[in-house]
Amino acid sequence: MTIDVGSAVVQIGRGPTGTALARQLLPAMPPGSRYVVIDRDPAAHQLPFGSPEPTHLINTRAAKSSLNLGDPDEYARWVTEQAAAAGESVTEFPARYWFGRYVRDMFDQAVKEATAAGVTVDVVTDEVVGVRPGRDRRWRVECASGQVFDTHRVVLGIGMLPQADPYPGIAGAAGYFTDPWQLPQLPAEARVAVLGTRLTAVDTALTLAARGHTGPVLLASRSGRLPRLRGPETTAPTPHIEACMGRAAAAGSLRLTDFGRALMADIEAASAQPPDWTEVRDGGPTTRDHLAHELAEVEAGIERGWQQIVNGASPTLLPAWQLLVEPDRAEFFEKWLTPLLVHGAPIPAETARRLVSAMDAGQLRVRDGLHNVRHTGDGFAVHLGDTTEFADVVINATGAGTDAAALRTQPMLAGLLDAGLLDAHPLGGVRVHVPTFEALDRTGTPVPGLHILGDLIRGAVLVTNDVIALSFQAVLLATALRTNDDEGVRPS
Ligand SMILES: Cc1cc2nc3c(=O)[nH]c(=O)nc-3n(C[C@H](O)[C@H](O)[C@H](O)COP(=O)(O)OP(=O)(O)OC[C@H]3O[C@@H](n4cnc5c(N)ncnc54)[C@H](O)[C@@H]3O)c2cc1C
């Protein structure tokens, strides 16, 4: 059945990004207009905020997690009220499922208010399997159920793509699990190797601990670096970065060395002792002592200059990334992406405390140098540098896929790539025209009426892993959509 939704926007995905966008657009729509939101499973347990595990905490403070940039305390207020009504108390880092509930509540409220104001909102539970050009510059949004929506504007906010298999030779082997969010009950004494040392891997270690797993757990990656810890939210002045950005804006381009020097100068000015820059970039695996030392620092409320600058400079990253010259973006990904993720996506002290206690119990270890995993018939050989460890179970917790193969796991994206209407970004995801978030086709031309937000545009915007950055993207797109006519959103 084809449904002509006239000039309605069809939004695919109602996670944090889609919800932030709907909350921007719906209140401004005139009575009689229409909006369609399609999601295959908005409460999905495979998503970070769908996890029912109480030890999976939000990594950004509640006070910094509002989906509404105009009301920064919205989430903190909401979770305090909801938890009190449920007879629970929450810390400043509540269990992540609370945030999932908040997203759904904010979405439902936005739909209710829009409906009361005379807007028709279709909330559809279905999987989108195809987005194809239709007649007269319109789009056909095809769902798995057979429903087709005919519209002039589509927004994709479909979140993270499935993880890639880093060692395809073990795919399908008994004991290899590709989805850390849907782990079956494992034999309690099994030797487990978790591939990855970032947020998803940390969650996996916490899941095993919460289930009473008694066997050894190894977190392994190339760098072996766990996320740093989130300390206070204070900021320090960033005069060097501001001056550097002023010069870059005037010149219309930015060099990585200039931004790097400015960042280092601001961090050094904010730090009691100058940081060891080799350690920041190439520091080895996180040891128990590193983690325990940092935990003690954070518990004592000690300010770390690097974090004050990261806190203060984070809004600069989007404009800096847009001004950075292309070769320098590739160099950044090669040399600085791991340090950015280690320092820029930190974990709460409570999570670190659980990790330290599992390390003290001799159960959890973190190793670097991961370069191969082989199936040995009755288990797995995990190759780390020139040593090998053996595991009964291997769990892939390397995080979202972003390369062209990962894009093709979504039939809708595969179709758009084949049609040349999407182009894989060399640094991950797909290419977009950032001011309007319109897809760029194979020739680099904006595709009218096809917009993309969130993790799928990581290469184009760099930061897609926190709700503030995603809400900001939603505000930028909503502004572009509201200020332009029906034919397109690019300035003429
Ligand atoms: C382990 C981990 C912990 C994290 N912790 C935090 C944190 O504490 N704070 C923070 O700010 N960020 C955190 N993040 C980042 C977080 O994932 C993102 O901020 C956020 O979930 C992304 O929201 P989204 O709406 O873009 O995507 P998603 O939440 O993935 O939502 C996308 C939606 O699209 C739907 N969808 C996908 N494909 C289709 C299709 N074909 N048809 C129909 N529907 C479809 C999905 O069902 C889903 O509901 C964390 C990430 C990880 C991996």
From TrEMBL:
Signal peptide: none annotated. This is FAD/NAD(P)-binding protein. Coiled coil: none annotated. InterPro entries: FAD/NAD-bd_sf, HpyO/CreE_NAD-binding, L-asp_N-monooxygenase_NS-form. It comes from Nocardia acididurans. Residues 12-160 form the FAD-dependent urate hydroxylase HpyO/Asp monooxygenase CreE-like FAD/NAD(P)-binding domain.
